[in-house]
Amino acid sequence: MRIATLDNEPCEMRWIKRMLATIGHECHVFATGQSLLNGLRAKSYDLLLLDWRPPDLQGSELVKWLRDRLGNRMPLLLLAGQRDKSDLIASLMAGADDFMLRPLSRAELQARVQALLRRAYPTRFDNELVCGPYHFNPVARTLQLRDQLVPLKHREYEL
């Protein structure tokens, strides 16, 4: 699935991107809130991982903006330091789905990402769907027609 990550720490962004790739997700990284907003205008994403303190926006304002524009379907997972816990609770009230405190655990982050995606997109985690000669695999997001793989872009598979 396609995930956007907003984090102003380059090492953390690379680690998250590699970790999500190992479990089969496509991860796009953004260093500022504004670059994320521009990215959301250009592409669609299935989940957002947001640093609670991006350099150019406030976390709670970003969450409200995202919910106003994108609705409630896309899961939002916030990442923050221990000292931000009370602010994060307010962000949950504003519309975030979950949060994690740093330092991040690989296993916990993978489990939370998978759980949020499973709840938000239950049909994608179902078994293969067969319609005549068409075989859709929601987990791998692939289509086969008469045993031949049909290359599809993210948006084409969505449609």
In terms of DSSP E residues, the strand content is: 15-25%
**Category by helix and strand content:** alpha/beta
Number of strands: 9
Q: How far apart are the termini?
A: 15 Å
Apparent shape: elongated
- Indicate the percent of residues in helices: 40-55%
What Rg is obtained from the alpha carbons, in whole angstroms?
17 Å
Strand order in the largest sheet: 2-1-3-4-5
Low-confidence stretches: none
| Chain-averaged pLDDT | 89
Number of separate helices: 6
Largest sheet: 5 strands, parallel
Spell out the helices and strands N to C. Answer: EHEHEHEHEHEEEEH
Can you give a write-up of this model?
- The chain has 159 residues and is of the alpha/beta class.
- The chain is built from six helices and nine strands, in the order βαβαβαβαβαββββα.
- The protein has helices at 10-22, 33-42, 59-70, 85-94, 106-120, 154-158, and strands spanning 2-6, 26-30, 47-51, 76-80, 98-101, 129-131, 134-137, 142-145, 148-150.
- The strands form two sheets. It has a five-stranded parallel sheet with strand order 2-1-3-4-5, sandwiched between helices. A four-stranded antiparallel sheet has the order 6-7-8-9, with no helix packed on it.
- Strand 1 (2-6), helix 1 and strand 2 form a beta-alpha-beta unit.
- The longest helix is centred in the last third of the chain and has 15 residues, at 106-120.
- The protein starts with a strand and ends with a helix.
- The mean pLDDT is 89.
